[in-house]
Write a structure and sequence with these properties.
mainly alpha; 3 helices
Length: 91
């Protein structure tokens, strides 16, 4: 089994299954923090799927998209933590 087969037949289904499990946590999350963390994790698994697809198809352009998604996920997490800090000060 080559590296490409391993990525395509083992890692990609594991990431797809984890995406489904994380999405269930996103829908059922009891608090806003759980939902934000699961959304961040969904973006992270999406970055992993894009990276594996980029390696499998030999298209390095998709890595730029993954990097932009990582920056957006980071900024979203920072914005949420800023929101939570301001919310705690007001209460």
């Amino acid at each position: 089994m080559s590296l490409y087969d391993y990525l395509y037949y083992v890692i990609l289904p594991v990431l797809a299954l984890s995406t489904l499990i994380i999405f269930v946590r996103f829908l059922k999350g009891p608090t806003l923090s759980d939902r934000v963390v699961s959304l961040d994790l969904l973006l992270t698994t999406g970055i992993g799927i894009i990276s594996i697809y980029s390696i499998h198809t030999d298209q390095p352009t998709f890595l730029d998209i993954a990097m932009i998604m990582a920056l957006i996920a980071f900024l979203g997490t920072v914005a949420f933590s800023y929101y939570m800090e301001k919310r705690e000060k007001n209460e």
